[in-house]
Amino acid sequence: MTGMDLTVATLRDLAEGAAVLGTGGGGDPYIGRLLVERQLREGRRVTIIPIDELPDDALVLPSAMMGAPTVFVERPPSGRGNVAALRALEEHLGRTAAATMPIECGGLNSMMPLLLGAQLGLPVIDADGMGRAFPELQMETFAVYGVPGSPMSIASDHGDVAIIDALDNVRMERLARVMTVEMGGAAYICDYPMDAATVRRTAVPGTLTLGMRIGAALRTARERHEDPFDALTAALAGTIYTHGLILFRGKVVDIDRRTVDGFARGHVTLAALDDPGDQLRITFQNEHLVARRDGEVVAIVPDLICTLNTDTGAPVTTEALAFGQRLTVYAISTPDIMRTPAALDCFGPAAFGLPDPYTPVEQLTAGTQVGA
Amino acid sequence: MRVGIDVGGTHTDAVLMAETTVVAEIKTATTLDVTSGVVTALERLLATSGAERGHITAVMIGTTHFTNALVTGRRLARTAVVRLALPATAALPPLVDWPDRLIRAINPSIHMCDGGHEFDGRPISPLKPDQLKRIAAELSTHEIDTVAISSVFSPVNAELEERAADILLAELPHLHVSMSHQIGRVGLLERENATVVNACLRDLADEIVDAFAEALRAVGIHAPLYLSQNDGTLMDAEYTRRYPVRTFASGPTNSMRGAAFLADLADCAVVDIGGTTTDVGVLSGGYPRQATGEVDIGGVRTNFRMPDVLSIGLGGGSRVATTPRLEIGPDSVGYELTDHALVFGGQVLTATDLAVAAGMADIGDPSLVRHLSKDLVRNGVAWMAGRVGELVDQMRVSAQPLPVIVVGGGSVLMPDHLPGVPAVHRPAHHAVANAIGAATGQIGGDVDRLFAITAARTREDVLDQARAEAVERAVSAGADPDTVEVVDIDEVHVAYLPGNAVRVRVKAVGELCVGRAATIEEVKA
């Protein structure tokens, strides 16, 4: 195989890059990183393979953690649930998986397939189905391009397993969500079973190596005392995430946060340091959805809106936002596969109840000036 | 009268206070032998003030001993860790992310057992007493006498940690037990880490408390002894033996609280300028704002309560660079100021030289900085004020401007007006703000855990319960029940769960009720 073996150093880069791709949400990759790091230190290997590696008919079972990151940090996994979920789906399908992969490359779920890969010696495909973080299971490019999420498996830390074969992906999400709560608020899933040819047709390619690249860029910029945002922009050049740019630079002057239907919704407002009247307001639902500067949309989902520490470039999640923080709001354009009409129906502005149409961030920001 | 003592790495400061008046203040060198440094400080304080020993009602001490022990990895006890969680959490055993240096220092004996709870209070698996009895036998064989016990979601339900402690203590009556629900909040690894830190400091805690008690006895003071905690409240000597980890970061907290007390402000920013760094913290209602998230201590990630402090490399000894552009710090001549600064005949242009040239300070020989250009001096002073003003601005939690108290040896660097700041205070006695913070500590109690809201238990019921628990904890820690009030309530709903789980933090504080606390005789007993 032509894959690359993960090292502790590349894993750490990936964890930071995944937090950037979490676009304010996705859960802190820290616990996930520790889980994988322990596997590596005990001599197990994680092999990351390119999307074109496997034969067309090889079975791929994407894997993830589902539920509340708050529960996950209090009750880290047994290492049994994720294996049980994969084995149950294999048994249900009567086939053996040739690889696993992330359904979500942003945040904690970038790490979970790596854990499974280390435990079972299963390669991990360098691709995912969200190209960032999203709050729900149906928000997948797999779904957009016709792959049913079902049958999916879900398992508890104890090893209880269930197969959900739902009529559609939204119903699957709801059934799985109820079961997750019964399983203690955090469960392990395998969904969107598909062959390697379908992965090539429907997945966002290269997103694990993208995460590593972003993390490495931020780390080396810090080590060399260089501008982390220049480094980030340079790291994105030549990837399918073509445009990376600073949307705004300022300090947090207001945060409005509430929990609605189990989601953390709210707004954060930043003011430019040299002109308090120049403001950027971001609306979030776990992840950042839309940024408006002085009322005008400057970036909108599914493009990535990242809140990063102005001094270090370190990602700041919606939970960690606090008054007075100096933040740089950095936007990253999504690849074409996430911008088709079908993709926007699934996870564009309307899917989150936003009235604004989708316009690519590079068009919205053409010729504008960045806040000081 | 109260005595406040701050035992720092190099200096020990002490103050004698009658109600709100500073009667006497002294500074002495910290000694390697804990008792004699404190004896010297107390004797000098009594001599300076002429106060009678019998009039002293309490002695409050803030100390860095425990932090230093962890940072240096010295004098830590061999420690056992028992986690109640299986089958959950098996993929991440205790101490998984600790630096090798500290693992070697505490040589841990690690045990994972059945137990733990889910977020809603259901058991993960029942406790198995036989597992714990086997662990007790092993600890006995290896002569390990301190243990940290953690259980999943113990901040929600502490029952299993308590039962496990009872079983171990029945087998090993002399065992020191540290339970995680008493020490940290939700976040298993971080809470467990803090509990292990506490457990490995237990022997040292006995030693230090005994040494302080011995010092009081040697001087003939029979008042009860208290130690400062990291949130600015006090704990009695007995409690300190059980929770030494709570002394971590009490230094910056005491400094901030002492400054606020001297300036008579409850809501303000405190700027502490030393020789090399400037620390900025914020007080709200008289207590330092706590940092959110994780705190790294000596390479160990924990989530216990620490003051939120921002630091920059600006102090009295900071070097002034003029090319390519004006910049002051972070390089500093530090404690060698009197060798290197221009005003002391040295060759290095420092921040102190600028302050002297600007007429803001009377240090060394002002004639040695008369040649500095007026522009450089003016711009330099403005640069420093601008940096500090920016830090203060960053620490504000609301749009409301905050008054600022400037303390520390480097406080002469600050002009009387800072950009964006309504008032700058420089109280008297600010050099011993730490000891004053210790002397004026109150008694607190707090609650931080997840509650489930149901049809039978409304949000109001939950908040009432949390308030009552916090008040009860403050009173049982020695607060006068008549003075206890709830000073902080924070509720956070938990994402990705149905709208019934809420994490509530409540803090209650009250005045120290001297009659309730143990005397030195009781402590020694």
Automatic annotation (TrEMBL), chain A:
Domain of life, source organism: Bacteria
Gene3D superfamilies: CV3147-like, CV3147-like domain
Domain S-Me-THD N-terminal, first and last residues per copy: 11-165
Extent of the signal sequence: none
InterPro entries: S-Me-THD-like_C, S-Me-THD_C_sf, S-Me-THD_N, S-Me-THD_N_sf
Domain S-Me-THD-like C-terminal: 168-361
Any matching Pfam family: S-Me-THD_N
Protein name per Swiss-Prot or TrEMBL: N-methylhydantoinase (ATP-hydrolyzing)
UniProtKB/TrEMBL annotation, chain B:
Top-level taxon: Bacteria
InterPro entries, per the entry: ATPase_NBD (IPR043129), Hydant_A_N (IPR008040), Hydantoinase_A (IPR002821), Oxoprolinase-like (IPR045079)
GO molecular function terms attached to this record: hydrolase activity
Domain Hydantoinase A/oxoprolinase: 191-359
Gene3D superfamilies: 3.30.420.40
Domain Hydantoinase/oxoprolinase N-terminal positions: 2-170
PANTHER family attached to this UniProt entry: 5-OXOPROLINASE RELATED (PTHR11365), HYDANTOINASE_OXOPROLINASE (PTHR11365:SF10)
Listed name of the protein: N-methylhydantoinase A/oxoprolinase/acetone carboxylase beta subunit
